[in-house]
Design a protein that fits this description.
heterodimer, A: alpha+beta, Rossmann fold, OB fold (Dihydrolipoamide Acetyltransferase, E2P), 2 domains, 5-stranded antiparallel sheet, 10 helices, 35% strand, elongated, B: mainly alpha, MetI-like fold, 84% helix
Chain lengths: 336, 250
């Protein structure tokens, strides 16, 4: 188990604030956060490459670990085979042992045909695999990934994610993977630490993090679009003349969020247990790949995600009016 | 297109400014005098001494200057700008002044000589010291800029793969900066060879080529100075062209 206890680090104007977390042996742990949130600095402290100002990191001191950066950091003066064998040559292994290990690992990753190539002429995906092979050949107990797929195109990114899943399933290493990509975090993570502005604001399973963001900042980062603020009285918050029912009875200042896919659009008013129902006009319909984002003005702007088929069947288009309905439990309240 | 023509014309003017005096000197020299000078023991000895002394200075700078360049490229500390300014001082001050400054540290009446009883004045060591002083900024600055361009994460990656910081430096940073380091070394060597002011103060004898040229010009006139000058130019041109070719092949 890797344990971080009260880790603090000040770097120029930025500060990592008292981080506490535990990563279990064999766990795939994601540190999720936007650019500039301190993810890489935290990872480098875990790797022992940067010293924290205070606090302790336990459980990795004597472990073999493989660190893989976003832009691969392949040594440009060495070819692919020399890059992969670098760590073994540092260990002064015999040449034939290095050759055998490099060939075995490169075969497993499907890059054995690249061994004599210069690393400067490889594609992004190939470079990524060489970087993985360079770490993997040392049989690390812990992998530290710093935005490892950020520089890849969508198709190669998915392939690399599948590769990570396979490696984790087959070899069971502990993985600490830093990313800003929610989908990647959802696809790979067994546990997620949400890092915002140097602060670990939530530590939970992917499902819980995305269902119940701990703060408004978390909700903002996770892409919640329906975020409002106001005063809650008698389980109601009034925003711009629109009254929304909440589970919280009173708060002088609260933020609320409603997930876009928790809101239902209908032509007629639905008679249901849902307490929040409003009538409004569609102002925008935006194609978002696998779904459609509809913006309705009900006195406030509400973002609703529906499928392309629903959009077609109901004739959702700007200027038309619809009912929107959501349950009280769909309104997440952050009190301040 | 017009800009290209204008820039080419300006560039040609600059090249002519450098080439014309050299060309004028080369065609002025009598080939027979040049041939005689080329086999003159004193001349050959001074040219070899110049090349050798500058080489020692450059090799010493590789040992002392490259670690300093790496520290300056990688570290942020109070007074760093002052140190960088100090390194550039030898380029700024008149080289005779540099020679006098060196004489006060290494001269016969200096603390160094009084304590050790060793006097380097008038030796090949003194020539190398003078050359080192005036030319070391070329190597340090070139290496420093090269190290700055190398992402620190290359070294961190090497360390994560089991390398010690020293091994990460020698196996990753230094090979990656090799071209600029070698180029800086060549520039330093070249600058050392051409040094006159500091050398003449610290060691008039044994005579380096620039001192010999000055002495012949002073005592015998232009006719005797030019063949030595042309010989030094030819030898330097051949050596540095070869070095540049080797550098490009690397």
């Amino acid at each position: 188990m890797i344990r971080l206890e009260n880790i603090q680090k000040r770097y120029q104007d930025f500060e990592i604030k008292s981080i506490n977390l535990e990563v279990k042996k064999g766990e795939y742990f994601i540190i999720l956060g936007p650019s500039g949130s301190g993810k890489t600095l935290l990872l480098e402290m875990i790797a022992g490459l940067v010293k924290p100002d205070s606090g302790n990191i336990k459980g990795i001191e004597h472990s073999r670990f493989g660190l893989i950066y976003q832009d691969y950091m392949l040594f440009p003066h060495l070819n692919v085979a020399q890059n992969i064998g670098y760590g073994l040559s540092i260990q002064r292994k015999k040449k034939n042992e290095i050759k055998a290990a490099v060939e075995k690992t490169s075969r497993e990753l499907g890059i054995d045909h690249l061994l004599h190539r210069s690393v400067n002429n490889l594609s992004g995906g190939e470079k990524q695999r060489v970087a993985i092979a360079r770490a993997m050949v040392l049989k690390p107990e812990v992998y530290l990934f710093d935005e490892p797929t950020a520089a890849l195109d969508m198709s190669t990114r998915l392939q690399t994610q599948r590769l990570f899943m396979r490696l984790h399933k087959e070899l069971h290493p502990t993985v600490i993977h830093v990313t800003h990509d929610f989908e990647e975090a959802l696809a790979l993570g067994e546990k997620i630490g949400l890092l915002l502005n140097g602060d670990l604001i939530q530590l939970d399973t992917p499902k819980e993090i995305f269902r119940n963001p701990a703060t408004k900042a978390a909700a903002d980062f996770l892409g919640y679009k329906n975020v409002f603020s106001g005063k809650i009285q008698n389980n109601r918050i009034e925003i711009n003349g629109v009254e929304i029912t909440t589970l919280v009875s009173h708060s002088d200042l609260a933020y609320i969020t409603i997930r876009s896919n928790d809101i239902i659009i209908s032509k007629e008013k639905i008679l249901s247990s849902a307490r929040n129902s409003f009538f409004g006009e569609v102002t925008k319909v935006i194609q978002r790949g696998s779904y459609v984002e509809v913006v309705l003005d009900v006195g406030i702007l509400l973002y609703v995600d529906i499928t392309y088929n629903s959009c077609q069947e109901m004739g959702v288009e700007p200027g038309r009016r619809f009912w929107v309905t959501f349950k009280t439990s769909a309104v997440k309240v952050f009190e301040h | 297109m017009k800009v290209k023509v204008l820039f080419s014309a300006l560039g040609t003017l600059l090249i002519l400014f450098i080439v014309v005096p050299i060309f004028r000197m080369v065609i002025a020299v009598d080939p027979v005098d040049l041939a005689k000078t080329a086999v003159e023991k004193e001349v050959l000895g001074s040219v070899l001494l110049t090349l050798r002394a500058s080489l020692w200075a450059t090799l010493a700078a590789f040992c002392l200057g490259i670690p300093l360049a790496f520290v300056l490229a990688r570290s942020h500390f109070f007074g760093k700008k002052i140190i960088e300014g100090l390194i550039d001082i030898p380029v700024i001050i008149p080289h005779t002044a540099a020679g006098i400054a060196l004489l006060m540290v290494w001269g016969r009446h200096s603390l160094f000589t009084r304590w050790t009883g060793i006097s380097v004045v008038g030796t090949e060591i003194a020539i190398s010291l003078a050359m080192f002083f005036v030319s070391v900024p070329f190597l340090i600055n070139s290496a420093k800029e090269a190290f700055k361009l190398i992402d620190e994460r290359f070294e961190k990656t090497a360390i994560s793969l089991g390398a010690s910081p020293w091994k990460a430096f020698t196996s990753v940073s230094l090979p990656m900066a090799k071209k600029a380091v070698i180029s800086g070394g060549i520039m330093m060597w070249a600058r050392g060879i051409s040094e006159f002011g500091a050398v003449v103060v610290l060691a008039y004898h044994p005579m380096t080529a620039p001192v010999l040229i000055f002495e012949r010009f002073q005592n015998f006139g232009l006719k005797y100075a030019v063949p030595v000058t042309v010989l030094l130019i030819i030898i330097s041109l051949v050596v540095f062209t070869l070095l540049r070719i080797l550098e490009d092949r690397q």
